[in-house]
Each structure stands twice: as structure tokens, then as C-alpha cells.
Amino acid sequence: MDELIPRAASEQLRESVSDFRVVVVNGPRQAGKTTLLELFQQEFGGTYRSLDEVEQLRAAKADPTTYARAGSRPLIIDEVQRGGDELILAIKREVDRDRAPGQFVLSGSTRFLTVPTLSESLAGRAVFIDLWPFSMSERTGGGCDFIRRVFRAPAEVVGERSEWRRDDYLDVLCRGGFPEALRVSTETSRHRWYTGYVKTIVARDIGEFAEVHHASALPRLLGLIAARSGSTFLQADIARSLGVTGDTVRTYTSYFETVFLVSLVPAWSTNMTSRLTKTPKVFLTDTGLAAHLLRVTPGALREPGHRAPGAWWRRSSSPN
């Protein structure tokens, strides 16, 4: 895993910077945003800063206007949500003063423009690129057009034979797509990595934008969602299992959505009204994280009738 894997989002980033004033690269922590931005700067120039660095964060909060004005363009600010409202407002003022494209490339490990403490939306000024953990197409070097092929030319797909066997699929499901988790050599090391990852997200990232009254319920809720991944999101059932209110489950689930760990997928129907009113399905956004939370291994998943692989595969095979 030492060689860099090309990301599908790279071309989107290049095109967007040439057309828009602000480009926001969103995605879960450790999905590869920093690497993507550093490679972009090496190719196209500009100034790179990370607000995970204490001195940079201090400077951004002390004088956000100067911080947004200084440096060559594009100004690349990693983990920009940590700078808060005032930095976002300073960026807004800069791009309203100069409407040239390619001024700012921002990244965040939260959907930071939906966070209540960040009031300014940059609406009409920014475009968004989501960077998820590695998709199967990126890991295998395949194309990202499988769904398009299925609908446009199904005859091209039917009958294709794969060299992969069931054990191969179960292995990639349990490994997930986070670059750091893929580098480790043992299941024990991967378990330690995911344990630290969840603690960081709960204690730091969510704690930065939300006041959590039932902190112990957060990892338990994430585990219940992992067990129900691919199933209908039954808020009342989950609330009873946790011993909290339905409102708490809804609020905490929205926090997990904000940090890209959970995705609620609207129900499918050819009827638009039904699609909007039916109960959505809930997914963890990384199968390796789901395997960690449920403490399952490829060996456990080989047992006939295990329900997890089908639901997880729908997540891991989706393109970035």
C-alpha cells in the first residue's frame, strides 16, 4: 500500500478549481483529503495550510481577515471548519471582493457548512466534492462506471466472469477503505486503529460542534447502526435499545452524518411522494468500520447465512 492510489476525485478537483471561486473537499477524517490537497498543490501551486496545526489555528482565529488574504492562490486550507464562523466570513468577503475562480480550496472532516456554529453557507460561491475512503474501483484500478453500464448496456455485464472468489470479497469488506487501515498487516492492528479512530471522532470532532449529554450512547448508537446497516432506519427501536429518546437518536445520528460516518439513503420508489415519505435505510459509510464495531472477521462472515456481507457490499461498491 506504499504506492499512491489514484483518486477519482482528483479530476473533479482540477476542473472545479478552474471554474469556481471556492472548492470544498468534504469527507471523513483519514479518507485521504490531506494527501489529495498536497498532491494538488505540488502540481498547480498555491499555498497550503492546515488548521490541525496549533500555530495555524491560532493565527486563523486571531486575525481571520489577514489569514484569508495572505498567501498565493489558490489558498488551500485543510480542516477549515476548525477556524469557525469568522474565518468562513472572511473567505466570503474575499471572494465577493474578487470573483476570479480558483481562489480557495477548503477541506473539512465535517459537513462544516451544516454545523450550527458556522452560520455562513458560502451559498452560490462554492462547489463541493466528497472524498470517501477508497472505493472498490479505486482499490482494484477498475472503472467507476459499473452502474452506468448496468443501466445502459446490461448485456455487456451479464456473463462476465471474475477471478475473485467469495473469500476475496469478505477480506476487502473487513479491511474497509481507509488508507491507514489498509496499510496495517494484522487484524489486531486494524482493530486498534479503528478503536482510536472512533474515540477521536466522538471526543474531538463531534465535541467541537455539539454538546453531547449522553456521550456513552454515541459509540453504542454507532454499533447499533452497524448491525442494521442496509436496513430501514427504525428510530424508535434503536431508542429503546439505547434507553434514550427518539429525538436523541435522531440528533446523534445527524452528528454521525455530519462527520461522514453514517449515511441515510432515501427509500426508492418510482413515485416521488413515496420516495420522500418512506423510511430511509441507514448505512455505515465504511465496511471496515462496521466489521470493527461488530467484531467480525472474514472467517466469521464465511458462515452460511450471515446477513452482513450483502448490506456492506452495497456500500463498498459505490463509486466516489
Explain this structure.
- It is built from 17 helices and eight strands.
- 50% of the residues lie in helices and 10% in strands.
- The model is unreliable at 315-320 (pLDDT under 50).
- The chain has 320 residues and is of the alpha/beta class.
- Strands 2-3-4-1-5 form a five-stranded parallel sheet, with helices on one face. The protein has a three-stranded antiparallel sheet with strand order 6-8-7, sandwiched between helices.
- The chain has two domains: 9-130, Rossmann fold, CATH 3.40.50.300; 165-316, Orthogonal Bundle (Arc Repressor Mutant, subunit A), CATH 1.10.10.
- It is globular.
Write the layout of secondary structure elements.
Blueprint: H1 9-19, E1 22-26, H2 33-44, E2 47-50, H3 54-62, H4 64-69, E3 75-78, H5 84-97, E4 104-108, E5 126-130, H6 136-140, H7 146-152, H8 166-175, H9 179-183, H10 187-209, H11 217-227, E6 231-232, H12 235-242, H13 246-258, E7 262-265, H14 272-277, E8 281-284, H15 287-294, H16 298-301, H17 308-316
Parallel strand pairs: 1-4, 1-5, 2-3, 3-4
Antiparallel strand pairs: 6-8, 7-8
Helix pairs in contact: 8-15, 11-15, 12-13
